[in-house]
Write a sequence for this structure.
């Protein structure tokens, strides 16, 4: 697959690309996911009193938004055959810095969001520099930075919580203030980011290069792709998206920010990416699939609660979904190699 | 090169020797404590997790007691409510040979052997906030009885709900003995005294505010007639209140819970939370430190006593070894601003 891509010279970008080079608009995995989600939603709509009402679907989409948003960046990273396990700790750092600044200075919405994105991008830059220019696998680097970020975040918390948060971020929340014409702002922003990222991965030259890097990094380098700056970029983008997602998390949270903010969310993000059909081996993946993966995970969690089933079952179902997704990915890879 | 290595070994040896003499010295002071009371008594408290307002308030009380009583108060807990991480901290305090070790165990069963180990190392052991009933602990510093606390929760809830209707519970850790005991009491009290009240669902959100809020939202959707939600721990209480507020169901769905006053104040004021049932956490911390010193000094606790002007009427039951702070404290919109934690 990657060789196909590289053979496409950047000079021909202006002309429409030959059909066989670009993957079809909706990949097989995405089609399957849309089917599964549709079946689940219909079943849950029949089996529970209110699953398919706006009072249930809208909060579900609000909960999906930050996971899918970080998932977009994570998809970029995993396409290049990297991974970022530090996003949970990065959420905590950006959330605590942003909320403490809001409490102390009362800064309005836009500066607060920009601050959060800036802090997130800075953390992403640290990850990106270490991964792109230090020759150690991303999982080791980001595992290390996760612990460092955790420490930094806890220092900011100073063994307390952030109390009396203003309602600045209610526009990203679950409540009435978080919607315009019934559409949750946080989910609308996420959709927009997914659309831009989808276009970028599909049509921009550097977007296609990410796939080449994940397919075979050496071959990509030999083909003249600037591997390191591109890899660095994927981590900075993820960091910036973490910053924006932190604002969503604060908006969905209570008026107190606890130190547990973000805890465990890196696994939800990676689950969404993998279930969405992005190959954990790199070289293949879509952001639309990631969005669907995030929706599926949240559907399962909400569904289990609304059906009145024991809470742990959602862990089981998400686990099975991850294994099924990775399993089909590996089977697909094998059949491709054979043919 | 060789010289450098020799120097290194010498340094390691020296540090080792220092550490060993350090230990021996400390042992000597420990054993001499009974007679001369020389050296400062060290009390270590291991909360379920640190950095949440609840345990920070206990820590504040403990520090206050340390100043009043002239003891050394150590406070360290895991950053997540994780039994294994907590066990590591307990082990390190055993190695440090503190005088009294007090734990609020995340998992009472796995903590029991560690407490035995501590006792064998000559350390006085106790539990506070959460008990490890099948352990060698000499005292359990209990905030309130599970009976009283659970009843205060169900009474506050039923008062807000007008004594009837469907309600659900959002609990936190599935292994927390005190939370599970509250659930039993709530079930029994409602069955006995509020025949028109019905518990329709019980879910577990971990110590995670966001998850508690999302689950409360799902519960309201799953049960359109839901009239009440209990947010059992300090993370769940503001979470369920926020969910009711976001759903625009203030006045339709009533919540009560075990939240700390500063986190609950906005929700108590806007009506998304009707009452928060807790105890004076700072006093509990003070009593914990005070009890630690009594244990270190080998004193016998009286069946009923006052610690100082603030903490009165503490009881101790010699049979169960449970020390009791007093009745629960109920925060409402009227009194919540008096508490700064």
């Amino acid at each position: 697959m990657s060789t196909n891509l590289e053979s496409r010279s950047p000079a021909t970008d202006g002309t429409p690309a030959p059909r066989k080079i670009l993957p079809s608009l909706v990949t097989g995995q995405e089609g399957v996911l849309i089917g599964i989600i549709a079946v689940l939603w219909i079943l849950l709509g029949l089996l529970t009193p209110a699953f398919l009402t706006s009072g249930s679907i809208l909060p579900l989409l609000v909960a999906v938004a930050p996971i899918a948003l970080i998932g977009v960046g994570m998809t970029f990273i995993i396409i290049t055959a990297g991974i970022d396990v530090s996003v949970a700790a990065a959420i905590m750092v950006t959330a605590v810095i942003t909320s403490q600044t809001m409490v102390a200075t009362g800064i309005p919405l836009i500066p607060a969001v920009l601050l959060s994105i800036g802090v997130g991008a800075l953390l992403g830059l640290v990850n990106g520099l270490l991964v792109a220019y230090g020759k150690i696998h991303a999982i080791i680097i980001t595992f290390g930075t996760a612990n460092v970020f955790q420490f930094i975040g806890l220092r900011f918390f100073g063994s307390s919580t952030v109390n009396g948060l203003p309602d600045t971020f209610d526009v990203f929340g679950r409540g009435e203030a978080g919607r315009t014409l019934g559409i949750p702002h946080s989910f609308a922003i996420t959709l927009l980011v997914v659309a831009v990222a989808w276009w970028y991965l599909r049509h921009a030259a550097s977007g296609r290069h990410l796939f080449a890097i994940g397919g075979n990094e050496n071959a990509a380098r030999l083909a003249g792709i600037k591997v390191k700056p591109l890899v660095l970029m994927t981590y900075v983008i993820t960091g910036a998206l973490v910053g924006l997602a932190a604002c969503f998390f604060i908006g969905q949270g209570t008026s107190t920010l606890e130190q547990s903010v973000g805890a465990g969310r890196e696994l939800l993000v990676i689950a969404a990416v993998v279930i969405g059909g992005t190959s954990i081996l790199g070289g293949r993946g879509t952001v639309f699939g990631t969005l669907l993966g995030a929706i599926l995970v949240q559907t399962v969690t909400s569904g289990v609660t609304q059906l009145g089933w024991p809470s742990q079952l959602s862990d089981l179902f998400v686990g099975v979904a991850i294994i099924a997704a990775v399993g089909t990915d590996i089977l697909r890879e094998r059949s491709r190699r054979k043919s | 090169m060789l010289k450098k290595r020799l120097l290194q070994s010498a340094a390691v040896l020296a540090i080792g020797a220092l550490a060993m003499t350090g230990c021996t010295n400390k042992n000597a002071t420990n054993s001499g404590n009974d007679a001369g009371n020389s050296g400062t008594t060290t009390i270590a408290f291991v909360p379920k997790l640190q950095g949440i307002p609840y345990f920070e308030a206990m820590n504040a009380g403990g520090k206050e007691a340390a100043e009043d009583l002239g003891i050394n108060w150590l406070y360290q807990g895991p950053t997540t409510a994780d039994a294994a991480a907590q066990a590591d901290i307990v082990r390190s305090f055993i190695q440090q040979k503190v005088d009294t070790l007090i734990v609020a165990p995340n998992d009472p069963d796995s903590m029991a052997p560690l407490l035995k180990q501590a006792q064998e190392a000559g350390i006085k052991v106790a539990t506070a906030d959460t008990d490890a009933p099948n352990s060698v602990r000499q005292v359990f510093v209990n905030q309130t009885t599970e009976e009283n606390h659970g009843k205060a929760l169900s009474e506050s809830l039923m008062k807000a709900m007008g004594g009837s209707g469907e309600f659900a519970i959002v609990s936190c850790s599935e292994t927390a003995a005190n939370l599970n005991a509250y659930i039993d009491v709530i079930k029994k009290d409602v069955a006995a005294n509020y025949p028109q009240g019905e518990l329709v669902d019980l879910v577990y959100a971990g110590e995670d505010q966001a998850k508690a809020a999302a689950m409360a939202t799902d519960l309201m959707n799953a049960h359109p007639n839901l009239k009440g939600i209990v947010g059992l721990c300090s993370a769940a209480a503001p979470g369920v209140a926020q969910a009711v507020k976001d759903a625009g169901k203030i006045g339709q769905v009533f919540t009560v819970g075990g939240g700390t006053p500063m986190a609950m104040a906005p929700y108590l004021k806007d009506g998304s939370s009707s009452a928060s049932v807790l105890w004076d956490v700072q006093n509990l911390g003070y009593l914990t430190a005070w009890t630690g010193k009594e244990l270190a000094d080998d004193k016998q606790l009286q069946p009923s006593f006052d610690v100082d002007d603030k903490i009165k009427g503490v009881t101790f039951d010699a049979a169960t070894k449970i020390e009791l702070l007093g009745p629960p404290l109920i925060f409402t919109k009227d009194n919540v601003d008096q508490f700064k934690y």
